[in-house]
Amino acid sequence: MIVLHIGLPKTGTTTLQKVCLEKFANVVTPYSKEVWKRNIKKKFPNYIQKQNPKIWESTEGREFILKLIEISNSKVCNGNLIFSLETMCMPPFFVVDKSKLPFFKGCNSMEFPIVKHLSMMCKAVPEFSNVRIIITLRDQASWLASLYAEQTRQINNPTEKDFTNRVRKLLNDPSTEGAGFLNYSKLYKDLIEVVGDENVYPMFLEEINLPCYWQMVEEATNLPINYMQFCEMMNKRVRRRAINEGCWKIRRRERILRNAKFFNSLKQFGMPRQFYCLLDKIDVLIGDNRSDKFCLSSELENEIKAYCKPFNQELSMILDKDLSRMGY
Predict the structure, then answer these.
(1) What is the pLDDT of residues 109-154, one digit of tens each?
(2) Alpha-carbon distance 210 to 203, whole Å?
(3) Residues with Cβ < 8 Å from 109, sequence gap 6 or more?
(4) What one-character DSSP code corresponds to residue 175?
(5) Distance between CA 177 and CA 245 in Å, rounded?
(6) Calpha distance 147→143 (Å, rounded)
(7) Which of 8, 50, 270, 305 is deepest in the core (most CB within 10 A)?
(8) 200 in helix, strand or coil?
(9) 266 pLDDT more than 70
(10) Which residue ranges form the domains of the chain, and what is each CATH number?
(11) Are 44 and 107 in contact (CB under 8 A)?
(12) Which residues contact 53 (CB under 8 A, 6 or more apart)?
């Protein structure tokens, strides 16, 4: 069995990976260091982001799928290979560096590249069709703010006004690349159309401190999960997050030394880790370290919620789950 945790990013994915999944030998995360895991964690998301879904009809694509199946059946995985790579479902709303912008080839603004890729993968290799999908979600208003905060280091003069203007453009112009990512209901329906509703596990960040969240992780992955341990840990994080609720940091700091031309040339000399730690400390002293914040205004939050309300109501009906109590 192959399990794919496809994101979305900024929905508690890093917490899930570092606190829970990373310790298991059959799980591939962005932080995996084993050689075979490093090769896969780079190659798989690159196919999704930068290749047309038709890549899976080619010999190269089929061979990669068969390789995944082979690994899942190996002694290390014992029939259960799990990927947790949110970059497979990366929305491009606020990405400034075009070299890092996912190229959703063969998809329009309202489509989900991961869904089209999964569909082609299942057709190319029918044995792949029993794949399980974990999709982590978060209320769209705070999700957009977190995505913007993540990109503020690359954005020229990030401000609350700039964030507001970008979000309103997204809401008013459906042709904006990735606009479909706000429609959680369509994303869920498209996924179950490809792999079946019994193989799609939607999980919500707002429930990360509840047993039901970790029970679903266990059900989807067949991993032994200590519910109460994780719930206690997450309760502490939720309380810390509540202190700064509604505001996000603007990350201005530039990595002056790290970005210098001589830096890459130093790698060939095999400098020790302590040397790079020293560079980071110097960067902190000489870089732009202003720690400004921007807030999600109640007016903009209401606009986002009004736009997404039909999608969330439909998803609530499909799942038979009251999402409104979590702010959706």
Answers:
(1) 778 889 999 999 999 999 998 899 999 999 999 999 999 998 887 7
(2) 11
(3) 174, 175, 176, 177, 178, 179, 180
(4) T
(5) 28
(6) 6
(7) 8
(8) strand
(9) no
(10) 2-246+296-326 (3.40.50.300), 253-289 (no CATH)
(11) no
(12) 105, 106, 107, 113, 116, 117, 119, 120
